[in-house]
Amino acid sequence: MRIAILAMPGVQMLDVAGPMDVFSEANNLINGRAGYELAIVGRDLEPIVTSNGGRLLPDRTIEQTLDGFDTLVIAGSPRVKDFEADRDLVEWVKGGSLSLRRLASICTGAFLLGSAGLLNGRRATTHWNSTTRLKKMFPAIDVQPNTIFIRDGAVYTSAGVTASMDLALALVEEDFGRGVALRVAKELILFLQRPGGQSQFSVHLEAQISEMGPIRDITQWIAANIADDLAVDALASRLGMSARNFARTFKRETDMTPGDYVEAVRVDAARRMLEEGDVPLKRVAALCGFNDQSAFRRAFMRRIHVTPVEYRSRFRRGVSRAPRELLRLAGM
């Protein structure tokens, strides 16, 4: 399977090197079966200067077609705005998609897929810091902020940097099965496998974007009192504000409604509890402020896209199924 990785000037090095290492390690583990042939594609054949000052030497350029290639991966770049309106580049992506089995973007590479119209009507994600712009530029895309990666049909999109390796592992699993993907993860000391819906980062980090004292203070109070009454009226009352003014100010400062934020904080707290202990799900729901276990499950599915039971089975520290399966595969 031939995989082309499109790298633009200013590309994040790990968006290219991470997937390449995953695919290369898969080649080492498939016991002589036909594996991956990798090619870096550049705008031209000049060395591609990455965001950290390193250089990548392209194997091909966009003057060449993607005939015979299986997959195109578009790496992200902090300079993506310089390229998302590049007609030749966008047309090359669009034309190449006709002969490919699947497409993938990493980080802001989603903007090139969006410019080519290849994400219209699809669910997609990108780096958390770019999801708002992606929504505004391409309203036909169902942007899913704060997820690791998403597959919609033959199109994959992912968050940035280390999420590129989660995406690459998902492609390896699709091509060669879970056993090979597990062995790749073991060799590269990776955690197999964060589900696509796992949070890109803690919701508490997101709230730190707010610079306004009262809103910052109330987000900290919410985090410390998640089982309390956190309705808009109650929160507004704590700040001596009207519910309407509080909701408007909160949304402006955090880019989230108070209700969305409270649910995200509660789910984030539940996620950590599921990772760290054996507390029964009913108790987790109560401690995190959910009215009942059904409400907890619905909120968790809405945010993480797996059930609490599934999440615990994958991520509970020290007892996940992955290490046992790795030992079995290794013959230990």
Describe the model.
By secondary structure, the chain is of the alpha/beta class. The chain folds into two domains: 186 residues, 3-Layer(aba) Sandwich (Rossmann fold); 113 residues, Arc Repressor Mutant, subunit A (Orthogonal Bundle), CATH 1.10.10.60. Helix content is 47%, strand content 11%. The protein has 15 helices and eleven strands. A seven-stranded mixed β-sheet has the order 5-2-1-6-7-11-10. Strand 10 and strand 11 form a beta hairpin. Helix 6 crosses helix 15. It is globular and about 65 Å long. It starts with a strand and ends with a helix. The C terminus is likely disordered.
Gyration radius, rounded? 22 Å
CATH superfamily of the largest domain: Class I glutamine amidotransferase (GATase) domain
Strand portion, in percent? 5-15%
Q: Let me know the number of strands.
A: 11
- Kindly report the CATH topology of the largest domain: Rossmann fold
Estimate the helix proportion, in percent.
40-55%
First-residue to last-residue Cα separation: 31 Å
Task: Return the domain count.
Answer: 2
* Lateral arrangement of strands in the main beta sheet: 5-2-1-6-7-11-10
Content-based structural category: alpha/beta
Number of helices: 15
Q: Rough shape?
A: globular
SSE series:
EHEEEEEHEHEHEEEHHHHHHHHHHH
Uncertain parts? 200-211, 318-332
What does the largest sheet look like? 7 strands, mixed
Question: In short, what is this structure?
Answer:
With 332 residues, the protein is α/β, with parallel strands linked by helices.
